[in-house]
Amino acid sequence: MRSVRTILRPRAPQSASVTPVGDNTDAHNLFSSLALEEVSESSQSEPPQMPSQAFSRSQKASAQFPDDLQEAKFSFIELIQDLITMISLLKKLWADIALLPRTLEAESAVLFNKHDGAVKLMESFYVEGRESTDEVTNQIKELHAVYRLLQDCRTKVNGEDVLKRCPDWVLTSEADITESQSGSQSQRVHILRLLPAMFLLCRNVQSQLAIDSFSKLLGRLLLRGHMSISVLFATKVYIDICEPLGDQLGCGFEILGRYGDELYKTVTETLNLNKQVKFSDWPEKSDESLVRLDRKVDFWVTRDPVARTANKTSWKLAPNILPRRHPLLCGVLMAQIFSESHDLEIDCANASGSVLRMAHLYHAARVFHYLDTAWPQMERVMTVQRTQALFVGSERPTDPTQIFPRYNLATGASIVIFSQGKRRAGNPRSKLPKEKLKRLQSGTSVLISLSEHLQALSKNPANPEFPRTIAAMIRGPTSKAVPLVAALKSLASTVTEEASAASIDYFRLHRQS
Hints:
This protein has about 525 residues and is mainly alpha-helical.
């Protein structure tokens, strides 16, 4: 286990006063003092203590703890707890991001329960550096400064402007950074791009290339970052606290690896599906987004983001040492990749109104036993997409009475949304005429249309074997058989005409609510 002296890195004595960290210069100095200072030679040259000596020394030190240190022990714990609270606030804004707070809570529980947490680290640090009380006090006050930055971050998270922009801790792949530098995308600095260089610098790897690159990125981040700089400080503290736990933190990387493999398969299947089935409203740029997401998973999960930088410094490190030791990075990666993949799934489900409606109508035909043979292409569409995004629920509806209410909900025509007591002010869906609302609330016309189309299809003499009507999909236009896909398209167009005023992109409104 690495000594706690190298975790919080004592420096030369300074004044006991604290300088506010309101500007970029002070923030840069604060980070440098926490991350880039080396352990003093005098501290490194201390001989190891025997267990009995260390115990008696600990007893004496615990009786002589100054008030600043006692207060700092609890503030240090609050720092980690507020980091979890901050992520929980982000979870409320992006409701589908659930793994990140759970990961932080789980790893923090290991930290506090098995190793007595920050209290033990702070006490051990004070016991080992009892002669340097001034240095301890200054570093404790710096931790308080980090704590204040974190509180400022929480204030900004609660602000209204957070909903209008992408979070600053969004990361990109190496290819996206190149595109951003060429001017094709917005010039934004991504906080997690700093972590590989920070990981090496914190271990005193003296590489001018790494130092220059890190300083340049950090300077740009300080000039443009808002919430990110607080997350950067909190990440640095969390990294140093968690490092003594070693291999116990590897579970985050294992979870991330399994998720990356599943996502890679899903993206591959979706791209192959898009080559076979072309959706009219599915633009090519969506395929490009899938490719970029695949690159991101490859860059951050499959490959080792530290290996390339470490090779330039001739520094030998274990494979995937960064994500294996830092569950916070794995949690942020998981949350961000999950958020992007979920957005693409929603875009795919809404790529064409007919595709979304046909999926519901096809599922209704299967539930009502009008169709016993599967439609392979539509089954693949329904399999690739998340059930919550396509059917607005955790499972596909199997109760016939829930088929059309869920269909109405998916197309933005929910009975609950349009009820008199549930309308929200300013919602364009609440301005529909009462006659239109009644037709939308009633699924009778849709049910009759579906029954007529599919019953006519089953009784068509040109296609007596109704379970094999899938063959009608490939017949030419001169065939007298009524293709199933044509019947579903016709029904979808009928529904579109009736619900044209309610064809609101429900999923996007749901994400913004």
